[in-house]
Amino acid sequence: MGDMGQGLQQAFSAITWVALVEAALVVAAAVLLIFVIQKLVPGLAGKLGGKARLYLLASVPLARLLIIVVTIIVVVPILVEPSFENMVAIFGALGLALGFAFKDYANSLIAGIVTLYEMPYRPGDWIEVDGKYGEVRSIGTRAAEIVTPDDTVIIIPHGRLWNTLIANGNDGSDNLMCVAEFHLAPNHDVRRVMALLRDVGFASPYTKTMKPVVVVVANKTWGMTYRLKAYPLEPRDQFRFISDLTARGSEVLAADGVQFVSVPVAASV
Question: Where are its TM segments located (predicted)?
Answer without folding.
Answer: 12-35, 55-80, 86-102
